[in-house]
Amino acid sequence: MIRRQWAALVGLAAVLAVAGLAGAPPAVAHSGSRAELYLADLRLEPARPGEWTIHAFLTDRDSGKALPGFDVQVTGLSPTGQRFGPVKLDDPGLRGDYSATVTPEPGPWSITVDAKGFPGGAEGIPLLQRVDVHLTPGASATAPSAASRQRSSGGPDPIRWAVPAVTVVVIGVLALGATRRRSVEATG
User: What is the reported pTM?
Assistant: First the structure.
C-alpha cells in the first residue's frame, strides 16, 4: 500500500516538475501567430544643434525578439502646442531599431509611436503608444515609461522554477512522513 502511494506521489511530482520546467506555452497563440508589437525602448540622442535622432526599438511582447520590417511613425506634441511629424522611422540594419532625425525645441514632449504591419509586409498587432520625454540641448533623453517596461534578459524566470521547487519540498515532506510512519510501525 505504501509503495503504491509513494509511486503515485513520485509520478505526480514528475508531471508537475516537467510542467514547471516547460513553462507556459508561447503566448503567440493569442495573436494568431502575429507578433505583438512592443516599444522596448524610446530614446532621443543629440545630433546637430537643434536636432535629435529618435530611436524606437520594437520587440515582440511575448518573446522579446527584435521586430524589423514594420511601418513606424512618430509624432510629437509639446505643452505649448508645438508639433512635429508624422515622421517615418527607418530600420536600415533590420534589427528592430527604427530611427530618424527630428527637430523639436528643447523642453517636455509627448511622443506618439505608431507601428503596424503593411500590406505584403510583416504582420503584427499594431502599437499606438504615447511616451513623455524632456529634451535638453546636448543631452540624450529616454522615455521613462519605455525604460521601466523593458524586459530583463537572462536569468531564470522565478515563476517557471516555483513549481519544481515546491514539488521537491512536498516530496521531501511526504517521504519524511512515510519513513517515520514505517519506523513507528516496525517498532510497534
Answer: 0.61
- Comparing CA positions, the residue from 28, 34, 33, 39 lying closest to residue 97 is 39
The three three-digit cell numbers of residue 156, written as one number? 531564470
Contact of 111 with 131, CB cutoff 8 Å: yes
Distances in Å between the Cα of 107 and the Cα atoms of 119, 144, 175 are 37, 15, 65
Beta strands, E only, 20-154: 35-46, 52-60, 71-77, 83-89, 97-102, 107-116, 124-125, 127-135, 141-142
d(CA 78, CA 84) in angstroms, rounded, equals 9
Say how far residue 94 (Cα) sits from the centre of its chain: 19
Indicate the length of the chain as a whole number: 188
Cβ-defined contacts of 142-147 (< 8 Å, 24+): 142/41, 142/42, 142/43, 143/41, 143/42, 143/43, 143/111, 146/39, 146/40, 146/41, 146/42, 147/41
Contact between residue 50 and residue 38 where contact means Cβ atoms under 8 Å apart:
no
Q: Coil, strand or helix: which one is 69?
A: coil
Largest CA distance in the chain: 90
Give the tens place of pLDDT for each residue, 98-128.
Answer: 999 999 999 999 999 999 987 777 788 999 9
